[in-house]
Amino acid sequence: MRKNSAASEPHVAEPRLYRVVAERVQQMIQSEKIGPGERLPAERDLAGKLSVSRASLREALIALELGGVVEVRGGSGVYVCEKPLPAAVPETGPGPFEVLAARRLIETEIAGIAAKVATGAAVDAILKAVEEMEHTHHDRASNEAADRNFHLAIARATGNTALVSVIECLWNNRGTLWQKLKEHYQTDELRLQTLPDHRKILEAIASHDPAGARQAMRAHLERVTRTFSRG
């Protein structure tokens, strides 16, 4: 029997968008002879020049920074490293905005389910995480741990262990690109701005309001996306 040639061909994964954009930025640096220590065009101008979103460009620039090609200086711009490394853009897994898009789809529904079935003990666990975030907003590491506990507590409130595993996977997939993004663009002020979001999610779940919980979670994750894509 003749085998289907299409079925037998190995699957070749599409390159992640931020890697494609990063390679285009590298090509631009070379073709326009932007030398070590020189500044790249402003993000808005560069995104327009490459016809990509600022979110995709920002992921690409962070990847290039991890690869030793550029240096992102907060409030100043992006500069070619004094001794840029010729290595390829590192593979760091899903981009931060890919993960955020997945979280908007999944966690919005999880919040709605939690609002339907959460027990008093489950609501108390979510409240504890919210209070921990409020007390640690000045400490990045502690605040991030509390934030993770908050989202996991909501998943646990559904009573579905598979959903808990999904949220753990999404958080574990944020990787080095996400950490660099937060390092450059998140401040104490921005962490404070998200605290009311968490309270609204908690209140909707405690009130057994699925529609309100979905809306509050979606609004929260959209705020996070806007914050990191525009700075």
From TrEMBL:
Keyword terms of this UniProt record: DNA-binding, Transcription, Transcription regulation
Gene3D superfamilies for the chain: GntR ligand-binding domain-like (1.20.120.530), Winged helix-like DNA-binding domain superfamily/Winged helix DNA-binding domain (1.10.10.10)
CDD domains per UniProt: WHTH_GntR
- PANTHER family of this UniProt entry? TRANSCRIPTIONAL REGULATOR, GNTR FAMILY (PTHR43537), UXU OPERON TRANSCRIPTIONAL REGULATOR (PTHR43537:SF5)
The protein's GO terms of the molecular function aspect are: DNA binding; DNA-binding transcription factor activity
Write one Pfam family the protein is assigned to.
Answer: GntR
Instruction: List the SMART domains.
Output: FCD (SM00895), HTH_GNTR (SM00345)
Question: Looking at the record's lineage, which domain of life comes first?
Answer: Bacteria
* Transcription recorded as keyword: yes
Q: Which InterPro entries match?
A: GntR_C, TF_FadR/GntR_C, Tscrpt_reg_HTH_GntR, WH-like_DNA-bd_sf, WH_DNA-bd_sf
Q: Which residues cross the membrane?
A: none
HTH gntR-type domain: residues covered: 15-83
Q: What protein name applies here?
A: DNA-binding FadR family transcriptional regulator
